[in-house]
Every structure is written in C-alpha cells, then in structure tokens.
C-alpha cells in the first residue's frame, strides 16, 4: 500500500494498493484526486501520465519527471527545484509562481504553459526562451 501525503499537514491525500509512488500518483490523477500540496520530493515519476493533474503547491523538489506527460496540469506554486523535467510534455500547464530553480528543462515542451511569476535562474531563462521559440530583440537594436 502506498500513500500520497500533504507536505505540511501530513494528511493522507490518496491511498492505493500499488507499490510505487509513480503508479499511485497516476491512479490518483486518473481518478481526479485533489493532490494540492502533495509531498512528492525525490519521487521517480519518469514517463508518468499526469494529464490535468492537480498538483498546486506540491513539493516535487528533486523529483524525476523526465518524459512525463503533464499537459494541462496545475503546478501553480509547486516546488520543482532541482527536478528533472527533461523531455516532459508541459503544454498548457500552469506553472505560475512555481519554483523551478535548478530544474532541468532541456527538451521540455513548454508551449502554452503559464510561467507567470515562476522562479527560474538566468541559465534556465535561456532554455525557456528556446523551448518557447521566442526571439528577444535588444531594446537598443530596435529602430525608432
């Protein structure tokens, strides 16, 4: 049996007969469970199907989400510091206010993701700009 617990209250958010946190999380998401504030720090969630997951304010620091499918997921205010999001599909996800400091973002699909107020490092900014296909024009180079 595996439980998903709240990061601060330690209340059980979801219980499953599965033996891994990955399987338990996939089942919880598919059942529409509210996993806001879940403690998933360091979890192996590689390739997990988490479409439309409600993970607002979740603790995912150091989690491996490489290749995970997170289309439309609500990760607003989540702590994703140091998480591996390489190759993750985050199209349309809400990452507003999330802490992405030190997270690995290479190969992540961020198309249409809400990154307002997300905390990222200067180095990550370059990756985000690249992943979103943005072109930044320096103010000095714009003709008046």
Write the layout of secondary structure elements.
Layout: E1 2-5, E2 12-16, H1 21-30, H2 122-132
Antiparallel strand pairs: 1-2
Structure keywords:
144 residues; little secondary structure; Pectate Lyase C-like; two-stranded antiparallel sheet; 2 strands; 6% strand
What does this entry look like structurally?
This protein is low in regular secondary structure. The protein has a single domain (about 40-144), classed as E3 ubiquitin-protein ligase SopA (Pectate Lyase C-like), CATH 2.160.20.80. The chain has two helices and two strands, in the order ββαα. It has a two-stranded antiparallel sheet with strand order 1-2. The model has no long low-confidence stretch (mean pLDDT about 90).
User: Which parts are unreliable, with pLDDT below 50 for 5 consecutive residues or more?
Assistant: none
3D shape: globular
User: Which topology does CATH recognise?
Assistant: Pectate Lyase C-like
Number of strand elements:
2
Question: Please, what is the CATH homologous superfamily?
Answer: E3 ubiquitin-protein ligase SopA
Broad structural category:
little secondary structure
Distance between the termini: 65 Å
Strand order of the largest sheet: 1-2
Percentage of residues in DSSP E strands? 5-15%
Report the mean per-residue pLDDT as an integer.
90
- The number of distinct helices, counting runs of at least 4 residues, comes to 2
The helix fraction, in percent, is 10-25%
Largest sheet: 2 strands, antiparallel
Rg, please?
16 Å
Name the helix and strand elements from N-terminus to C-terminus, one letter apiece. EEHH
CATH class: Mainly Beta
Number of domains: 1
CATH architecture: 3 Solenoid
